[in-house]
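We give the chain.
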Amino acid sequence: MNTPEQSPLGKDSATPEHYDPALLFPMPRAPKRTEIGVGAQPRFFGADLWTAFELSWLNPRGKPQVALAHLTVPCESPNIIESKSLKLYLGSYANTPFASPQDVAARMRSDLSQAAWQGSERSGSVGVRLLLPEQFEREAVQELDGLSLDRLDIECSRYTPAPELLRTAQDEAPVSEVLTSNLLKSNCLVTGQPDWGSIRIAYSGAQMDQESLLQYLVSFRNHNEFHEQCVERIFMDLWTRCQPIKLEVYARYTRRGGLDINPWRTSHPMAPPPNVRMARQ
C-alpha cells in the first residue's frame, strides 16, 4: 500500500524527459476515511474536480501544443492521486509527440483511471476534458454563491479541528441555507505547506449556528491533511453533529504546481458543480 511518506512530496524530483505513466502515485482513501468513521460504503457521493493549468505536448511535427485540463475523479474510486506525482506525470508529456489532442485526452483518461482504481477488483473512469487555446477566452471566473460567513465578527482561538464547536437550533423549524467562507486553510499532510481554500456548505435541516460554524472552519488552520481528506472530515462532522436532512460540501483550493483540487461531497445524488475557478485560483 502506498503511503504519503513514500510519495514524491518534499523530495527532489528530476524533470521527466518523456511520457511516463509510472510517475503517477495513487494512495488509498480508506485509512483516512476510517479515522472519521467512514466505512466501506461512504455516506456521501461526489468527486474531486481538478484543473491542470500546465499541460503541453508536441504535435507530429514537433511543434509544442498547450491546453488546460479539467479532471473529474469520482469519490468512489479507492485511491486519490498524489498531486506532485500528477504534476510530474503531466510534465512528462512536454517532449512527447501525440497525433491529436484527442489522443492526449484518451491517454490521460486511461492512465488516471488505472491509478485511481489500482488494487481494486472494480474499475471506473476519470473524466478528462481538454480546453484548447481558442477556448481560453470563454473560461469564466466567479465566486461561490451563498451567504458569506466571513461577515461575522467572531473570536477565534481554536486552530485544530474542533467539531464540538458546532451547534444547531433543534427546537426551531428546519431551514435550507447556502453558506460560504474564504477562510478555509489547512496544511499539506507531508510537507506542512499551507493550502488555502474557499468552501460552500448547502444543507436542509436544523439551522446551523453560523458563528460556531465559522469558528469550526477556522479550526482547520493548523491541521495537516490533504484537500480531499479535509472536505470529507468537514462533511462527516457536519453530518454527525448537525444531523441535516441533506448536505453538500464543496471546497475550492488555490493552485499549487499548476494544479488546483476542488473536492465536492454530497449526501444525495446530483450533478457536480461546474469546474469554474475563483479569482484566487
